[in-house]
């Protein structure tokens, strides 16, 4: 890990993992990997809270998001706000947060996505991830399913209000779910990870002019 974070770096660990000093716990594993980091536990993703948190964390060179999508999203917000390196270290694969350049913020009972940054580095440890409850990793296929259903919304918008529509991108999105497999083996986790990366690539393939449709395909509401 010294190639990723050196002792001279000031590092912040953003995590929503259950607090435990047990060496075999996910948090214990994370602390061993990032021994130089100070820690913060995000209380949520309300925008005003994130703005204040980013100001409080302005002096860090490296921000590590370890845990689920919330921790990684918060790390991306802090990193983007302060021009700091961001490392994504998912301990479950339930979303594509480690591959996107946006953060989900919650306001007035709704979720919206604001531009932040992609992690500069993503570290995947399938030996650690597979230890998580099965349902948490299986939820990642729900993220893939969300782009499957959003394609039909996109087609409907094209017919009713003239939205531009890409049959090629839509077909690629629909084919992703055909790759679904169980995630209780590392090969299955790797397949899920590839599909999450692919759905983000589809967003990028649409390009910035079609960002709104890219978001509707790639990010569940």
Task: Give an account of the 3D structure.
This protein has 221 residues and is α/β, with parallel strands linked by helices. The chain has 2 domains: 11-129, Rossmann fold, CATH 3.40.50.1970; 134-218, Dehydroquinate synthase-like - alpha domain (Dehydroquinate synthase-like, alpha domain, Up-down Bundle), CATH 1.20.1090.10. 47% of the residues lie in helices and 16% in strands. The protein is built from 8 helices and 7 strands, in the order E-H-E-H-E-H-E-E-E-E-H-H-H-H-H. The chain has a 5-stranded parallel β-sheet with strand order 2-1-3-4-7, with helices on both faces. A two-stranded antiparallel ribbon has the order 5-6. Helix 1 links the parallel strand 1 (11-15) and strand 2 (37-40). The radius of gyration is 18 Å and the shape is globular. It starts with 10 loop residues before the first strand and ends with a helix. Mean pLDDT is 88; it is low at 208-213.
Core attributes:
221 residues; alpha/beta; Dehydroquinate synthase-like, alpha domain; 2 domains; two-stranded antiparallel ribbon; 8 helices; 47% helix
Strand order across the biggest sheet? 2-1-3-4-7
Helix content estimate = 40-55%
Let me know the largest β-sheet. Answer: 5 strands, parallel
Which CATH-level-2 architecture of the largest domain? 3-Layer(aba) Sandwich
The best one-word shape is globular
* CATH class membership of the largest domain: Alpha Beta
Order of helices and strands: EHEHEHEEEEHHHHH
Roughly how many Å apart are the termini?
Answer: 36 Å
**What is the typical, i.e. mean, pLDDT?**
88
Structural class: alpha/beta
Q: Evaluate the radius of gyration.
A: 18 Å
Number of strands: 7
CATH topology group of the largest domain: Rossmann fold
